[in-house]
Amino acid sequence: MSLTVPAALTAQAQRDEVDDAAFVACIRDSLPYAWNLINDLAHRLRDEGGPFADNQTPPPDEAARGQLLRALASDAIRGALERHFGVRLAFQNCHRVAVFAPGAGADAARREFTTPRQQILNQSPELVDC
After folding, report:
1. Is there a contact between 84 and 20 (Cβ–Cβ < 8 Å)?
2. Number of structural domains, the chain?
3. Domain of residue 74, residue span
4. First-last CA distance in the chain
5. Residue 1 belongs to some domain of the structure
6. In whole angstroms, what is the distance from residue 38 CA to residue 80 CA?
7. Is position 87 within any domain?
């Protein structure tokens, strides 16, 4: 299961739409490693500036890796995180997450980050099983 959903939130979803704040809280509580990583990257981007901030450190364990995969593979979760933090997300391999600032300069950096060339250059033997 990707998220641990409180009964009240499930009941809300059965009746009507779920607001972003409630969904984001569910993500934060269910996927703490992924949440903290993206939160830290968003703050680093704001503090340091530039078109993007990224993480190149592999997760500490498989549970953390699974959280990243679940957060970034779900369009709904990824979209909620992007709206909440005001960034665009990109993902390479099993751990390299990047947050991009809104705007034309960051769009070019995001396009470069997500090219097949960059994907190939980001490969290493240590990451074969990630």
Report:
1. yes
2. 1
3. 7-125
4. 19
5. no
6. 12
7. yes
Nearest Cα residue to 128 out of 99, 94, 105? 94
Count how many residues are written for the chain: 130
Q: pTM to 2 decimals?
A: 0.82
Q: Is residue 130 a part of any domain in this protein?
A: no
- 92-121 burial, b if ≥16 CB within 10 A, otherwise e? beebbbbbbbeeeebeebbeebeeeeeeee
Asked if residue 56 belongs to a domain, the reply is yes
Q: pLDDT tens digits, residue range 78-120?
A: 999 999 999 989 887 666 888 988 875 666 666 666 555 655 5
Q: 38-54, pLDDT tens digit by residue? A: 999 999 999 998 888 99
